[in-house]
Amino acid sequence: MGNLLELLALLWFFACWMGYTLYSRRRAADRSCLSNTLDLYREDWMRVMLRRTNRIADASVVGNLERNGAFFASSCLLILAGIITALGYTSQAMEVFATLPFSTVPSREIWELRLVTLLVVFVYAFFKFTWSMRMYNFVSVMIGSAPLADDSKTSPAAREAFARSAGNICNLAGDAFNLGLRSYYYALAVVAWFFSPIAFIVASTVVVIVLYRREFCSDALGALRSGKVFEEPLPGKADPTSKPN
Q1: What is the per-residue pLDDT across 13-45, written as a single tens digit (0 to 9) for each?
Q2: Would you say 13 and 186 are in contact if contact means Cβ atoms under 8 Å apart?
Q3: Comparing C-alpha atoms, which of 102, 113, 128, 100 is closest to residue 184?
Q4: Which end of the chain is more exposed for a tag (fewer CB within 10 A), N or C?
């Protein structure tokens, strides 16, 4: 019965993780959230960048975003090293954990399953952060190859296509970083599993609630949505609300 509860808790964790990932993507298609709002900001940023003659600030911003991913990727490697070390000292780790209050020591197999699950979470996070870093590197290259503001040979349509393409790459990088950051939240839920499977189930549910509230109902979202009008007509297109002379 105990092992069954452990497996049910693990299944609930993965259901929360994958279920919320799918839900948030579909929900973002018809409702404002942090992800799609920042997508609009990034695309607009690329349009503004094309109108600037000096793009040092844009390159600096991309560099800062890339360094954020590098920091978390490096942290993942350190955590993975610690988890692998803990797997090699399972007996000693279980003895130490048994002295903690409110903790129950499971069988060796369940203990190792908990560590392996935590390992999987941070491996996933590492791949997401490094992929985000690579795509921000792509954005840097695109900024370097962007048409100059006074380049009369580049048509407005070509500039708009470039802005959309660069914005899309930047959005993909941001989405990968977001998925990697979410993994840290889910890792905290796995930590609760070391105390009990019930705590694991509760923590997994709480993590999903926290992520949902921050993504779809946070004050930050309201501030971002009110900070800019995104329905402005695109360059080279007439405003559909304007009346003909």
Answers
A1: 999 999 999 999 999 988 999 999 999 999 999
A2: yes
A3: 128
A4: C
Closest of 139, 135, 132 to residue 166, by C-alpha: 139
Count of CB atoms situated within 10 Å of the CB of 114: 21
**Angle ∠(207,2,85) on CA atoms, nearest 5:** 65
Under 8 Å between Cβ of 93 and 86: yes
Q: Nearest Cα to 218, choosing from 37, 21, 5?
A: 37
* pTM recorded for the entire structure: 0.87
- Within 10 A of 34 (CB to CB), how many other CB atoms are there? 19
CA pair distance 31, 182, nearest whole angstrom = 20
Q: By CB neighbour count within 10 A (0-12 exposed, 13-18 middle, 19+ buried), where does 191 fall?
A: middle
CA–CA gap between residue 103 and residue 230 (Å, rounded) = 51
Distance between CA 143 and CA 138 in Å, rounded? Answer: 9
Residues 6+ apart with CB under 8 A from 169: 135, 138, 139, 142
